Amino acid sequence: MTNSAYQQPRASFQTWGPWALLAAAVVAGGMSARVVGVDRAGLVVCAVLVPAAVVLQLWAQRVRRKRPGPNRTSVCLYLLRWAFAFVLTWANPFFAFYAVTGYYIAVRELPRRLVMPGLFLTAVTMSGSEIGGWPPHGVILWLGFFLVLAVNMGMVSVFTRYALQEEARSVNQAETIGELERTNTALQRALDENAALHAQLLLQAREAGVADERRRLAAEIHDTIAQGLTGIIAQLQVVANAPDLTTARTHLERASTLARHSLGEARRSVHNLAPVALAADGLPEALKKTVTEWGERTGTQAEFTVTGTAEQLHDEVSATLLRIAQEALSNAARHARASRVGVTLSFMGDEVTLDVRDDGTGFDPAAVPERTRGGGFGLDGMRARAERIAGSLTVESEPGQGTAVSARVPLVRDDH
Fold it and tell me: What pLDDT does residue 367 have?
């Protein structure tokens, strides 16, 4: 409950409550005038003070809208209302219905130091009404008056204390809720900024991936297609200068073989522009098919294993790991001369690990030459792929002891 929600019922009562209590007092006083023995002077007093109380209430509401209490004006209005109620109750005890208004408006219209004195004045009026009206006649009624006054003040003190404590708790609760709302707003703003940053990072990763693919294609074209075309031109030049038909036919066959090989390399490069294997399957299924097809194509025993609970990964993560696996298998086929290759995909909490191991010839990682401008994809390219999505790639190998390539990347789930 906010402070405004707490104050709303009280403000509503302070606006309409005095009118209702005054109306109840007039009705009760009119019906009981003969019973309680109101004389002519009392009726005149009531006839004068009731309209005055109405005017006073209208004036008080107008002042309250312009200058909400507590202030000097509100104190004067409270005392004047009390005086009207005291005199009306003296004339007819049933006007205590109007006097009780003082209990409900004291905290709002009186400064804190005057709240208890104001409540005491109202308690005096109410106590006189409760013993039968003013003034008390005889010692017994005076003793009864002081007893009732003490009880009233005791109850007023307790209820006022509880009311002040409840109001303080409501104010503290409202401040706490306001602080929580500000904190939630700041948190939501931070989450929005984080989401925007995440989207920006993904965009940058895609742009980096595009640039990386362009560099890879350029290197592959240089390593395969360009070299193949150079070889074809050289063979055709030999054919042009061949001394006999047999020699020309031999070099034409070599040129044809180079052309078919270059065409196959061109198709492979175009096919690798996008991981088609991920179009219909998740990463585990795509890796399994890739390893199986690679083993059948190279005649090498190849095994694929998944450990942990498989999850649907983000497209960038899946594509990165699949590319690394393809390049590692390609390197194993071209350089390792392995008889057995094992690929393991491990889901480990907030991390995914891809391990590619072979029992091939191995090499010294420290002796690997740096990538040249016309160089292939290689280990540096695989490492760049992993690092682009906040991952890492390690290579363990020794001459004659095989090779182990391990890529570790964050487990980012699919956001679709």
Answer: 73
In the chain the first and final C-alpha atoms are separated, in Å, by 39
- Rounded percentage of the chain residues whose pLDDT exceeds 90: 13
> In terms of pTM, does the model score above 0.85?
no
25: alpha, beta or left? (left if phi > 0; alpha if psi -120 to 50): alpha
Contacts for 61-65: CB closer than 8 Å, 24+ residues apart: 61/15
The number of beta carbons lying within 10 Å of the beta carbon of residue 27 is 12
DSSP element (H, E) containing 292: helix 283-298
pLDDT of residue 18: 81
Does 353 score more than 90 pLDDT? Answer: yes
The DSSP bridge partners found for residue 301 are 340
Give the pLDDT confidence score for residue 393 in this predicted structure: 94
Closest residue by Cα to residue 99 from 118, 76, 112: 118
pLDDT computed for residue 392 by the predictor: 94
Angle, CA 109 vertex, CA 107 and CA 112 arms, to 5°: 50
Q: Is the backbone peptide bond immediately before 70 cis, with ω within 30 degrees of 0?
A: yes
- Tell me what the pLDDT averaged over the chain comes to: 80
CA angle 241, 245, 250 (to 5 degrees): 85
Measured CA to CA, the distance from residue 122 to residue 154 in angstroms comes to 13
Buried b (16+ CB within 10 A) or exposed e, 226-265: ebbeebbeebeebbeeeeeeeebeebeebbeebeebbeeb
H/E stretch holding 227? helix 227-240
Decide: 341 and 303 in contact? Cβ < 8 Å: yes
